[in-house]
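Re: the multi-chain job from yesterday

Posting the exact lines I submitted so nobody has to dig through the queue logs.
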Amino acid sequence: MNGNGIRLSRRRFLQVLAGTAGTLVVGIRFADAADAPLPPALLGDNLYDLGAYVRIDADGNVLIGARDPDTGTGVATALPRIIAEELDADWKNVRVTPLGLGVGNDNGKPRWTYGRQLGGSGGSIPAAWNDLRQVGAVARWLLLQAAARRLGVPASRLRCDAGTVIAPDGRRFGYGSLVADASKIALPANLPPLKNAADYKLIGQSAGDVDARAIVTGQTRYAIDHHYGDAWVAVLAHCPWPDGTLARIDTTDTLAVQGVLKVVQLKPEPGQSPGNTAIAPAVAVLAENTWAALQGRDKLKLEWKPGASGSENSATLEQEALALLAGDTAPTSRVRNDGDVDAAGRKAARRLDATYIQPWLAHATAEPMNCLVRLDKDRASLVVPTQAPQKAWAVVQRLTGLGPDQIDIRVPRVGGGYGRRLDHDYVAEAVMLAKAVNKPVRLLWTREQDFGHDYYRAGSVHQISAIIDRKRQLLAWNQRMASASALTHRGLPDDRLWTSELQADQLPAALVPNYRSDWYALESAIPRGPARGMPHLSNAFAVESFIDEIAHQMREDPLKTRLRILGEPRQLPLGSGGTLDTGRLANVLKLVADRVEWKNWLRTVNGLGIACWHVDGAYVAHAIEVAMQGEQLVIQRVVCAVDVGRVINPLGLEGQVAGATLDALSIALNAAITIKGGQVQQRNYKDYPLASMAQLPNDVEVITVADDRAPAGASFLAMPTAAPALANAVFRASAVRVRRLPLMKELLRLL
Amino acid sequence: MAPVQAQVLPISPESGIVAEKVRDGIDLQVNGERFRHIGDPQMPLLWYLRDVLQLTGTKYGGEHGGNGADLVLLDGKAVSAITVPIAKLAGKAVTTVEGLAANDGSLHPLQQAFIDEDAIGCGYCTPGWLIAGVDLLLHKPHPNDGDIDQLPNLCRCGCQARVRRAIKRAAAGKAGRP
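And the result, structure tokens for all chains:
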């Protein structure tokens, strides 16, 4: 080992290592790190103790590790592009490998080798912008030093381009020819400077998905595609109620199925928070292959007894929410209270009220829950489709008692996350089973289980009142929301349970002098958890629909109403520490309005709808054009504008924005989970119909604002405004105001 | 499961080695290779592909197919692999996503068009989209939007708009061109 560390944070250092085969590896290590496992691809020869991100081989090939799980968000492409940019690598010669969990042993506690490892939360690119650029910059600096020494000229007279160092006389030296020397050079005392944006060659340029060829040829192995030769396949029959119990079991017929090996009962561990243990009691059938296991499960004779949740109905919960909001009960949490809403109400010129009702939702990931696990005496090896490998680690560690670095978690590309894979009940189940049968286990959930045993997004009721003065100014906004928090029993104090349900800073907060936002907690034993776009999705639908209703009440162009509420371009400080730039928000609104030819909004026979929102320093607006053909709703045109600061990969961003738009439209049009007697009624795609190709618009026109601010995340940015823009367009086309989702069912009821 | 090839073993009687009798089973072709299934004839094709042949490009979607992730071509038609028991496949030819490219590795135009249009979300259901798209192009080389609307696949990543573009690109013979 050689080289000094560069200080990144208190204890993490950039590190450079030379492999015996003359490779250069740059990564991040800890001041006092012991041996830590590395992905074999980066390991090369006997390298160890290194949070490797970049390896450059003598033949000039570059291997870059992607630390965050890619659930379809494009981070496996974008994150390595950030490193490759600072490295001045030739993208054609870059290969990418998923890093899997990086964990070392810090006196029995985990030490996260790669820092933050979290996918699908919108935070991957902002985090990478902060630390991964340095990795590429250091590698490039070392290569420049090596070339400078060889040529006897100062490094400042050299430049880099596409995997080569160019000498003052024009001679080019491939990186591969320099790595052996570069790996012997000590790191600089200070971090080398990062590139100027004007010199970017990769950032801001489009790149296709790095896994595209492997995916279209069926070669990409998701967790569900991984095997161990001696693993038993496990499928489960879950109790219909998370708090139910097994009253009777007869496994005779199951054990008679050829290939079935064992039947094992599982129970959620008492005292564990949701997402860390089994989601419900279950009976597992373990077999030689999937088909035998499934047949065995079908032949189980089980009798389950409901727990307290057995009396729950989603319709009743909705009635409870409406009753809470109709009464004088004090809210569970007063989320925000600016000015004096009650005093403003007394001098009302005009008052408007509306109630919006939104259903429970499932995650419906394409790849169902699954997990491959092998437990040895001093090692656990897992392949996990997770968004949060560090959280998966915690579950495995608790159940096995192994040391932090004795747990190896690989995370291949993931078939959709949407927040479902921030929970690891399925990992707990697989580890419990592997312990019970003392064999490697490959756990597979069937589709019915994915729909029937989810950590759902709870339904919600929003009741909003607005006071408008004679000059058409929005004088007061009083919002009351009732829902069952996604954070119940997840370790937060009661006075923070509202944070999964709404934001204190959401529109039109900070823009209305008298603004109040109250949250009412509903109790439910149905499992709930993180969901894509939470809490923006439900709130943007209510708020942006209501602003459209205000515009209609005032007989005004809803674009004009919105722009007036936003006011002059200015920076408003937000409680979360960020700022709301009303100019940037107005800008995306105007961009979609121009593109969709909003000036025709009253004249066209079709309906035009518009909506805008802000999410953690990023801005989004949708304009949607629909036509009613009898009872058929045709979404003819969808325009979305986003401002996320600097764009790393325009093609990737366009894909995320179009994709999130279509996902949100699909959910708004059709999706609802209903609960009867504590049981979820939806069991497959027929019951929970994601939108078909025919229902969705043919295209989504994406406009990206050119900006040089630090990049914000975009994985769900385009979700919140799609549904309200759609509902607002439907109102113009049909005169029907949809205040309840899913939209199609309600529209057909009201037409 | 090995391909069924050397069925006659040239073993002389005096060697003392007796060739194992070829076991009865169901003969089928997968991606041009011949296989004999000797297990449960009711095993759905999906589990045969994934568990036995370890061809994992065809994905599990749901018990009744569901989202189209388990589509394969059966004699040129897209079918859900979980709905077809091996018993029905005697003498039939199955093409999975692994078999769309030519033997020399050159991609099917629709595969190339998916790459060109970056028509990939998480990618899990992409093999199913490809199979459905290849079926469509086989039977309708120049599909219009209404034809493309009939694809049975579902996707939460929202790659539908790009899939539509990719199918049109392949139909126009523009796959692989800028």
